[in-house]
Specification:
Elements: H1 15-25, H2 39-43, H3 51-56, H4 60-68, H5 82-92, H6 114-121, H7 136-139, H8 146-157, H9 164-181, E1 185-190, H10 200-211, H11 218-238, E2 242-247, E3 249-250, H12 255-261, E4 269-270, H13 276-288, E5 295-299, H14 305-313, E6 324-326, H15 336-341, H16 349-368
Length: 370
């Protein structure tokens, strides 16, 4: 038997998996709702100088892999040519089997969506390209950039942001713009949160201090973030957005390298400090208020996958299929064919067809309303 590498059998490791893919999945449309490419590059149909630039110009997951193999920074983010950088990456590529290297970006509420709008108006662009609403810079009140970001968001929304209430008003205006464009997804990164009850007065006081650049206590930060997620979830429910929560990211672990190169350059890691109970308390509060939107939980720590899966099931209310559900992080892969081969799932063609078509296309289409 010939090599499967780059053939029609790539990643198909057994006869059942091959048959299921070619029979039911191969002809379905491709829906990629969690790998947001650069809108400007798509619209302008950017032509990269070579494969090295295309693969390595922005992908910090590849940068991380190269550093792991001891490659000097000059071949990663430094001044070496992309040809030289590519040769270094090609050298480690055979050792990366089983390690996905993906780039995923989303749009900030203050983004103009200029190129998304242009693509929407361009009839020559046949692929439907959407984006996700990611308000992280308004969520992390402890960041030094928070005061300046309030000015940026204020300008984008066309209104003054003087308190927490007006912040939420500005975010709603921007969310409405994303909704007009056709977006139905939010992307929320939760590096750490511990639920804290709060009052409106407490949150306003915390916002005032954060906007002034004052140092906040851990309790105050948690209060603000708890309130922020509740209020944003209300807006997501109002505008029929799916709330995606990325749980347990250890941001900027290597401070020295972050100072030298910048944020989002390959130094974020997995953390376990966010308790299942804290996320459960957020979902519970939203359920009590009748404002729980469709929600996908993405725990980055593999050890938390099962606890969060059980938590999600506890908030499904029968109104929609999988209202709260677990989203597999990008390093997990479905292996249905192998389950059938090992006798761990029954070989009934009707159900297998339904599962494959659901996983590959129909579930996403129905859940996001596309």
């Amino acid at each position: 038997m010939g090599s499967k590498c780059f053939s029609g059998e790539l990643l198909l490791t057994n006869p059942t998996g091959s048959r299921l893919y070619h029979s039911y999945a191969e002809g379905l449309p491709i829906v990629d709702y969690h790998c947001h490419l650069e809108a400007r590059e798509i619209y302008e149909n950017r032509e990269f100088k070579d494969l090295g630039e295309m693969w390595l110009a922005h992908d910090h997951y590849k940068w991380r892999a190269m550093r792991t193999f001891g490659i000097s920074e000059e071949y990663i983010t430094g001044k070496k040519s992309y040809h030289e950088k590519y040769l270094k990456f090609a050298w480690i590529m055979p050792y990366l089997v089983g390690n996905p290297l993906l780039l995923s970006t989303t749009e900030d509420p203050a983004d103009s969506l200029e190129y998304h709008m242009k693509m929407k108006e361009n009839t020559a662009v046949k692929t439907r390209i959407l984006t996700a609403f990611r308000p992280d810079r308004a969520f992390y009140c402890e960041w030094k950039t928070f005061p300046d970001y309030m000015k940026i968001l204020s300008k984008a929304a066309g209104q003054e942001i003087s308190d927490f209430s007006s912040l939420m008003g500005a975010l709603e205006k921007r969310l409405a713009l994303f909704a007009e464009f056709g977006t139905t997804i939010s992307d929320n990164g939760i590096a750490h949160i511990a639920w804290e009850d709060y009052t409106a007065a407490q949150v306003e006081d915390i916002f005032r201090k954060a906007a002034a650049g004052e140092r906040l206590s851990r309790e105050a930060i948690n209060r603000y973030k708890s309130a922020f997620l509740i209020e944003m979830a209300k807006l997501y429910k109002k505008y029929n957005f799916v709330m995606q929560l990325h749980i347990g990211t250890y941001l900027d672990a290597n401070h020295r390298k972050v100072r030298e190169i910048g944020q989002s350059t390959g130094f974020d890691c997995v953390d376990d400090s966010t308790a299942v109970k804290s996320v459960g308390q957020i979902l519970d509060r939203l359920t009590e208020l009748d404002h729980l939107p469709k929600t996908i939980l993405y725990p980055l720590n593999p050890a938390q996958m099962e606890p969060f899966a059980v938590l999600a099931a506890g908030f499904c209310d029968g109104t929609v299929r999988g209202k709260v559900q677990l989203g597999a992080p990008w390093w997990f892969n479905d292996q249905l064919g192998e389950l059938v081969e090992r006798g761990e799932y029954f070989s009934d063609e009707k159900y297998l067809k339904d599962i494959i078509e659901g996983i590959c296309y129909r579930n996403v289409k129905e859940y996001f309303g596309w």
